[in-house]
Specification:
single chain, alpha/beta, four-stranded parallel sheet, binds zinc ion
Length: 268
């Protein structure tokens, strides 16, 4: 009898083989430990991402196997604040690639890296891409939670803040943490800070602007917050969590509906 959600680390090796034979999607949460203002624990990205993946793996119990969350990521520009554990970009990318190639070696042909820390994203995408370069008949995908069109619509409905209010330790992350564990959030210490030097093209919000500019965090934030943390509520958090879980389940089913790639001879 399989547990729900199916936890990779709790399987025996014959069960790992069976999970691969069932063509389950391997879900890999990826985050970081990083300062999140004076009101949120440094595990904000980790806890949120792990919980979204756990709920998604419960909702899609027959279609997934959930790996332990990868706790450390890429945050060098946050190091002026106490707390972050940052992994060099290439070490981090290779580490994720090693996770993916291990899964591929065991026969998993579909995997999804679910990331919850902004500065990881390009590296997570690169690692997923490299898994597919090495294992051409594998689908290795990367995503950031709450970034689909439907999720953006939910964010637009839920938010009270202007653009910039959902950057980091913000209305969005504070709301989700309040929904997960209100006792861990010190709302009396929550502050709003919108110091990022935004322009038409370069701005920070849940989806950033098209011109990518990431100065050292301490150059534009005194508290580590970028956004309106004081607008966080558990009710908003519940809605955002629900949207994130639906989004990840949708991605799992998208991957399951896809044929595996086949390399072919070029035709002139
Ligand atoms: Zn965060």
């Amino acid at each position: 009898m399989w547990s729900s959600p199916l936890l990779y680390e709790r399987l025996t090796w014959p069960e790992v083989r069976r999970a691969a034979e069932e063509e389950r999607v391997a879900l890999v949460p990826v985050a970081t430990l990083e300062d999140h203002g004076p009101h949120l624990p440094i595990d904000t990205d980790l806890r949120i991402t792990a919980e979204i993946c756990r709920r998604a793996a419960t909702a899609a119990a027959e279609e997934t196997v959930l790996l332990p969350a990868i706790p450390h990521g890429y945050s060098p520009h946050h190091m002026d604040f106490p707390g972050p554990i940052t992994i060099e970009w290439d070490t981090f990318t290779r580490y994720l690639l090693d996770v993916g190639r291990s899964l591929a070696r065991h026969g998993f042909v579909r995997m999804l890296f679910v990331n919850g820390h902004g500065s990881n994203q390009n590296l997570v995408e690169t690692a997923a891409r490299l898994v597919m370069v090495e294992h051409p008949e594998t689908l290795a995908a990367a995503c950031f939670y709450l970034s689909s069109a439907e999720a953006a619509a939910t964010i637009a409905e839920v938010r009270e803040s202007e653009r910039g209010g959902m950057g980091h330790a913000c209305e969005l992350e504070t709301s989700i943490y309040l929904a997960l564990d209100p006792d861990a959030v010190d709302m009396a210490a929550a502050v709003d800070e919108l110091g990022y030097p935004a322009s038409e093209n370069a701005y920070m919000d849940w989806s950033d602007g098209p011109l990518k500019l990431m100065p050292w965090w301490s150059s534009f934030s005194r508290t580590g917050v970028q956004g309106r943390a004081t607008l966080g509520t558990a009710e908003k958090g519940e809605r955002l969590l629900e949207a994130a879980v639906a989004e990840i389940v949708g991605y799992v089913r998208d991957l399951l509906g896809r044929a595996l790639p086949q390399r072919r001879e070029p035709v002139a």
